[in-house]
Amino acid sequence: MVTLEKRGRVYLLTLTGDGEHRLNPALIGDLHSALSQIRAEASATGGVGGAALVIAAEGRFFSNGFDLKWASEKSPDSHRRSRLMTSAFQRTLAALISLPMPTVAAVTGHAAAAGFFLVLAHDYALMRADRGFLYMSEVDRGLPIIDAVMSLARAKMAPRARREALLGGAKLTAAAAAERGIVDGVCGGAAETVAAAVRLGEELAGLTWDGPSYAAARIAVFPEFAKIVELAAEEDPKSKL
Fold it and tell me: Source organism's superkingdom (predicted)?
């Protein structure tokens, strides 16, 4: 469901296949395992030397949100399944937010609902111009938004963009998303978007920032999210010197 490779100092995590990359426990678990592997490798270096992460996806979708079919099919307890899915996603976002390196989303296709929030959890986002939109579908489907991801929207989206996306269900193209400051750049197609994201990741890795310090700074940028998920920065041994 995902692959992880290293291009220079950049980790490239790809959601594979031509499907919608619906976020169910299996895919969320794969994402979390990959993030854990990256974190372990970064810890082995002491958080020095520079690294970055790019997340991309194959096919028409970056991610079309939660797997609502999985949550409801053949189960009398769909609420329990939904809670399982959302709590796992929340933990994975926490792992991404606390990762000790810069992160870049290569938005190579549609990103809707939880897929949109996955984009927002990155430090940077580049989006292909020729296909795809960002779409908060919850208002159209009558679904609630969990507090943790709503806190990311409040922190990362301007009031106008929040109103259009969260209250209006706007489907934002790459150009519209860039205009509203949701994505940082627009690229020609999927391959160009991934290539540009890897280049940006290499530039960021080249700054050789201290990993734990970078993670602590990011967590401090999102205090509401950190409080909701009980996320604290790892103690830096150098702080005791």
Answer: Eukaryota
Q: What does the buried/exposed string (b/e) look like for 168-178 if buried means 16 or more CB atoms within 10 Å of the residue's CB?
A: eebbbbbebbb
Q: Please, what are the domains in the chain?
A: 2-240 (3.90.226.10)
Integer-rounded Cα Rg, in Å, for the chain is 17
Query: CB 181: neighbour CB atoms within 10 A?
Result: 12
**pLDDT (0 to 100) of residue 115:** 97
- Token pair 């943790």 in the structure block, residue: 148
pLDDT tens column, 25-60: 999 999 999 999 999 999 998 766 799 999 999 999
Q: Phi then psi for 136, rounded to 5 degrees?
A: -90, 95
β-sheet with 110-112: strand ranges across: 61-63, 110-112, 134-135, 171-172
Specify the pairing of strand 124-128 against strand 171-172.
Answer: unpaired
User: Is the per-residue pLDDT at 220 higher than 90?
Assistant: yes
Structure tokens, 240:
């005791």
d(CA 138, CA 6): 35
Structural element, H or E, at residue 112: strand 110-112
